[in-house]
Amino acid sequence: MLIHPQTCILLCIHTIRVVGIISASKRREIVRSFNPHRNASSSITPLQVGNGDFAFGADITGLQTFSRFSIQSSWAWHNFSLPTVENQTSPSDFLGVDWWTYDRLVNYNMPNPAESDISNWLVQNPQRLNMANTGFHFYEYGITEENILNKSQCLDLWEGTIISSFNYKESDVSVQVSCHPDQPVVGIAIKTDLVLSSKLGISLEFPNSDTHKFDAPYVGVWNDTSHSTVTMRIAGNTATFHHKLDNNFNQVGMTWNTDIDMSLNRLNGGSDTLHIVADFSPPNTPRVIPDYNAIVEEYRRWWENYWTSGAFIDLSAARNSSANELQRRIILSQYLVAVNEASYNPPQGLVNNGWYGKFHVSPAVNWSTTALSGQSLETLAAAGKHTEFTPIAYSPSSNQILGHF
Questions:
Q1: Which processes are annotated in GO (biological process) (predicted)?
Q2: For the chain, counts of helices (H) and of strands (E)
Q3: In the predicted model, is pLDDT for residue 83 greater than 70?
Q4: Structural domains present in the chain
Q5: E-strand spans in 140-236?
Q6: Distance (Å, rounded) from C-alpha 112 to C-alpha 168?
């Protein structure tokens, strides 16, 4: 039996019963009932904070201490140097490959064995960059996750905040991580008496890029510094790190509370609470790094608006045994979409890299939240991306499909 696609859509819509307005308190109760809780790091899946254009992945410590999860954005990319083989030193040297299609030769943008160097360069570049790794430094060699005790972690989906705690050297450590809703900025709060005794530090590392098509769960090369240099400038309670990787640049700006003395070697505290704000804005971007408390409050308001705007699916009254699992997947998917796929480019995700981290234009709208899809569509229209890509797409496509009908 053949069913028209429009009929299928109508049938699906008919099965949904609208039962009325779901209050903000009820939505909060449902969302928070699916908060992820952990007592150890996942080997493949970080908990994340982010805003769709930028995301920060965390292990059980709330940072990236034992698992080198990614800090990724829609703008941070890396290109390897072009090949030096004669007639393969520029993208314009690429000729593609001719294949017989419907009794004629058609040129396709596929790797050409006769020009493998420039073919491979075009496939592999650019790669989405893992901008940095930040974690705790324990001033002891060989500390592993097993050496810290009473580990506990919760992702508060309603407020978009990762709350972590653990015990080290008989001292409790609590960590809270939030993200600015509109900027590539992370706010980190650390509370422990280890800051007072200078027994806990913060590390910041910058990985090199690689040529892997798929990088998961970690992105980048950590044992090679041959292509990169890092320079640092500290002034008062502000530090700026410049990372040069081949001919690409990125930078991190950091601030912390003024009663903490952060040096290259030690963290000396006049307080047991450390507030760090890390700004991953593109180079040459005017920087006004927001206050930690302002980040937390703006992020909380943004998430509350996200969860209370538009329709909401409540399956709590459903009798089907699979309803709770379906509800869980709906809630977690909505969170992950907001963090990873509300970018100013079509989505690829900001957990790790697939296809070198490159996005695909066709699935630009694959969510149902009006605010997020509207943001992406408006940006695509403003940037003229679809208009820009259309002639490029039509040029080879018309030649390739001619004769199929």
A1: carbohydrate metabolic process
A2: 7, 20
A3: yes
A4: 5-79+125-360 (2.70.98.50)
A5: 149-156, 161-168, 171-179, 185-191, 201-205, 228-235
A6: 56
